[in-house]
Amino acid sequence: MQHELDMRNNYKRPAKYYPVFDLDRCSRCGLCATACTWGEISLKVERVEKGKPVCVPFANKSSCGACHYCEKQCPEEAITIVEGPSTVTHRYWEGDIRNLYRQVDPGHPGHVLLISTGADSEAICYFDHLMFDACQVTNPPIDPLREPMELKTFLGRREYSNGPVSAGPVSAGPPKNGRPLSPVLEIDTPILFSAMSFGSINLRVQVAEGRAAGILGTFWNAGEGGLHKSLHKFRDRTIVQVASGRFGVSPGFFEHCSAVEIKIGQGAKPGIGGHLPGEKVTEQISETRMIPMGSDALSPAPHHDIYSIEDLRQLIYAIKEATRYEKPVSVKVSAVHNIAAIVSGIARAGADIIAIDGFRGGTGAAPRRIRQSMGIPIELAISAADRRLREEHIRHQVSLVAAGGIRNSADVLKAICLGANAVYVGTAVLISLGCGLCQRCYASKCSYGITTNRADLVQRIDIDVATESLVSLVTAWSEEIKELMGGMGINTIGSLVGNRERLRGLHLTRQELDVLGIKQAGE
Ligand code: SF4
Ligand code: SF4
Fold first, then answer.
1. Considering the chain, what is the average pLDDT of its residues?
2. Does ligand 2 come within 6 angstroms of the Cβ of 412?
3. Residue 145 CB coordination number (10 Å)
4. I need a surface site. Which of 24, 114, 318, 347 has the fewest CB within 10 A?
5. Do the beta carbons of residue 320 and residue 329 sit within 8 Å?
6. Distance from the CA of 330 to the center of ligand 1, in angstroms?
7. Distance of alpha carbon 106 from its chain centroid, rounded?
8. CB of 59 closer than 6 A to ligand 1?
9. Which ligand is nearest to the CA of 449?
10. Region of 89 on the Ramachandran plot (φ > 0 left; ψ -120 to 50 alpha; else beta)
11. Which of 261, 265, 263, 243 is nearest to 185 (CA)?
12. Hey, whose CA ends up nearest to atom 5 of ligand 2?
């Protein structure tokens, strides 16, 4: 056969990852081909036994994103995902050459590159440069196994509010300046499940979050996609969102939650709206979002009725009126350059809680360039915001929730020492359900069944197992937090909020230490 040179081949991209099969271990069960939703694994007939074909798996070397699902599901442990050798000799262009080819490939005409989960850039992670204080000699540590440790946290206008929101109905507080006060949220651990909408994840995952939040005494956030009626039973543990798309928002909507969050921004894509493609808008999603089936669900980048702090104040108080001042109102913003002033304005606009989402915050889909290069780290943002509110003597008027890249219990506690009252976790929730961080949630083919609503894949989520996993995650982190607190001789989490004296910095410049408000190790 005559082969010809073809310029279109210039854009071929050698497989970055692919599965390698140990055929001595492989039992030829074929499960991996079913497990892979990306079309990477095929089966070919190896031989015929008793009239039946015996098939062996092979890698197509075309679409593996290293989600590792096949590897984990293989009953014989016969699969290893490997990274293809890079033959790019130019170090400066090495990271971009594949994406550049992708954008000019005539087979896939130019498009904005999408990506999921939070930024994976090599930008400094400040959490890794912070060390906790520890008790020695004159200030004895506390043994958390023998002494009570208090992780209970209250979110909202604590000083003047009318008591906690926990299970059951709440009543509005006495009027202040002519307006009743919203109650506070009471949580048993300073960890909440971050906003992930129905559409970006599926109902089974949301049910697991609702159940786990109830068991743990915390809250889950339903995200901007409305609230499916099957989730109404979790109303005592649910935070709902009002985003620019206003999906599912109605007076009835507010009856099924404990708090309402106005979503202005998201850490992974500050200044960018949301887009759930029409093909993902199933019957259930259309009903929940109150949009026609098959139509694109677009959240505009701005709220078209918010162009000033006064506009935001109107929306905050419209929601408070609609909920008879029975539910605290949170405002979620991305961590951006002028975050301290923004937070000050939001606090003065009447928000009870402000959630700040750092640039490592996760997402279902974000333009790759925005995810990697917009926003600032949560460590700097939360510290700047907390200090500004203290300087202005309005810190008590609002609680701060830190989000965006919280990876473990130490990150939780460091965020609290830098000024957060609590944290949101999102990517850690996905990982606790098995997610292999392939960063392709936007494709709605998640092999684990987490970030997809494809009927066949959703079944891969076992709600009981998912609930147990979430409970285990937060329980383990809470225990670790108690140990860290014990080592510092602290027995109530509240006394660590903004307690920067308990932190020291390593390998940071004087300017970075100043923004964080902490001392250099050794000082
Ligand atoms: S799942 Fe494992 S044992 Fe089954 S065919 Fe694939 S590699 Fe072989
Ligand atoms: S949740 Fe997203 S990142 Fe994780 S495995 Fe599924 S598609 Fe990949």
1. 93
2. no
3. 10
4. 24
5. yes
6. 48
7. 35
8. no
9. 2
10. alpha
11. 261
12. 435
Is the distance from the beta carbon of residue 429 to the nearest atom of ligand 2 less than 6 Å?
no
Ligand nearest to the CA of 434: 2
- pLDDT band (50, 70, 90) for residue 275: confident
Please write the tens of the pLDDT for every residue from 143-161: 999 999 999 999 998 654 4
Structure tokens at 482: 């108690």
In this structure, which residue's CA is closest to atom 6 in ligand 2? 446
Atom of ligand 1 nearest to the CA of 22: 7
Task: Kindly identify the ligand whose nearest atom is closest to the C-alpha of 439.
Answer: 2
Q: pLDDT digits over 194-227, tens only?
A: 999 999 999 999 999 999 999 999 999 999 999 9
Q: How far apart are CA 511 and CA 503, in angstroms?
A: 16
Closest by CA position to 474, among listed 85, 208, 195: 208
Which residues make Cβ contacts (< 8 Å) with residue 112, sequence separation at least 6? 367, 368, 369
The Cα–Cα gap between 263 and 270 comes to 11
At 412, is the secondary structure helix, strand, or coil?
Answer: helix
Q: What integer pLDDT is reported at residue 295 of this predicted model?
A: 85
**Token pair for residue 305?**
């009725």
For residue 490 and ligand 1, the question of a CB distance below 6 A is answered with no
For ligand 2, atom 8, the nearest C-alpha belongs to: 438
Quick check: 223 and 237 in contact, CB under 8 A? no
Residue 266 has, within 13 A of its CA and on its CB side, a CA count of: 33
Give me the DSSP letters along 256-273. Answer: G-SEEEEE---TTSTT--
The confidence band for 165, taking pLDDT boundaries of 50, 70 and 90, is: low
CA-nearest residue for atom 6, ligand 1, is 32
144 Cα: distance to centroid of ligand 2 (angstroms):
36
Q: Which of 162-166, 271-275, 368-372, 435-439 has the lowest mean pLDDT?
A: 162-166
Q: What is the DSSP letter of 113?
A: P
- Tens digits of residue pLDDT in 296-307: 888 888 888 899
Domains, in order of start, for the chain: 13-111 (3.30.70.20), 149-437 (3.20.20.70)
The pLDDT assigned to 180 comes to: 73
Residue 47 has, within 13 A of its CA and on its CB side, a CA count of 3
- For 400, the 3-state DSSP assignment is strand
pLDDT at 128: 98
